[in-house]
Amino acid sequence: MCAPLPPLPATIAVSRAFVVASRRLTAQVIAIPVSRQICKMSQPNKKPREDGDWKQIGTHDGTFHCDEALACYLLRKLPRYRDYGIVRSRKPDVLAACDIVVDVGGQYDPATHRYDHHQRTFNETMNSLSPEKPWVTKLSSAGLVYLHFGQEIIAHMLGDGADKKLCNVVYNKVYQNLIEEIDAIDNGVSQFDGTPRYLITTNLSARVGRLNPAWNEADQDTTERFHKAMAMVGEEFEDRVRYYSQAWWPGRKLVRDALEARHGVDPSGQVIVMEQVCPWKEHLFELEQEMQVEPSIKYVLYADQNGNWRVQCVPVETQSFQSRLPLPEDWRGVRDEELSKLSEIDGCVFVHASGFIGGNKTRQGVLQMAQKALQMAK
């Protein structure tokens, strides 16, 4: 298990302009080697070059952000960069001496390992640099490093015997479900048009931002705090890699098996039974297309932890709260005997007020609920 991070200071984010103006622009040099073990930080062990200088990854000093913290962490996941020191400065001569520079310097040049995205002419995306990828969000330094090194990092983390297809799947899922968000936030790309109904302030970028010193704190040094930010983003990254490789991907076969058996569950082919509960939504959408499933699946049945059974509606999209076919409106918010009488199905436990899920004491009971919901929708 990962070692717990030290308590975080109660800080608030401050504007980059204020901090840059108020802080001496001196080089902050730190060595934060990362071991091959997940979530472990090793002691400094920098490796000198033949000319006697230390190998270094450069980034800007002052207020730090999620993208460069992750970019530095990702680079040091590779054995050849593991012992590189981290130099934080905006001085051109200091950055010029660095072997790799991220998020500063006004240059994107993979040949010389320069990965900045702030220059006026930069508009690169995953799709523009790797056309087989669908994502069109402007890249930050995290996205750039992931584009150039991510496949190698994933393969290294999964081990020498890792299947190439699995490495590619994990690479795509980690970008789509973690790094694209960081790219978008750092570049000021809105998630949607219009005014949000509520704010989300607990994302990784926001949590990294809160590690910076508050404007009225006496100690404005960010060196140690950047160290903490690297540890935080690294733990999040490696948790996603673990999840998609060890928990999410193995569930694909279970969903495929359920789809292949769907006509034995109900002649309509619109109901599947998950014999073992696993993350199924994304697999279902992808496999429906791959297997050309028609009509689409409306309900998924599975046993809960208490031995009862659930009937869950398939959403219109993976992250949507809208269902393809909600359970009947008359059932919603009704429970137990009252629901059994209303539906004329024994053993009913509940139907959620929004109609996206219901429960019954038996497998046969939830199947009857699904079948009746299909009939009532005709």
Layout of helices and strands, plus pairs?
Elements: H1 16-22, E1 28-30, E2 56-59, H2 66-75, E3 85-88, H3 92-96, E4 100-102, E5 108-109, E6 114-115, H4 126-129, H5 141-158, H6 164-187, H7 204-209, H8 223-248, H9 251-260, H10 262-265, E7 271-273, H11 281-290, E8 299-303, E9 309-313, H12 336-343, E10 348-351, E11 357-360, H13 363-377
Parallel strand pairs: 2-3, 2-4, 4-6, 7-8
Antiparallel strand pairs: 1-3, 5-6, 8-9, 9-11, 10-11
Helix pairs in contact: 2-5, 2-8, 5-6, 6-8, 9-11
Description:
The structure is a single chain. With 378 residues, this protein is an alpha/beta fold. It is 39% helix and 10% strand. Strands 1-3-2-4-6-5 form a six-stranded mixed beta sheet. Strand 7, helix 11 and strand 8 form a beta-alpha-beta unit. It is elongated. The relative contact order is 0.09.
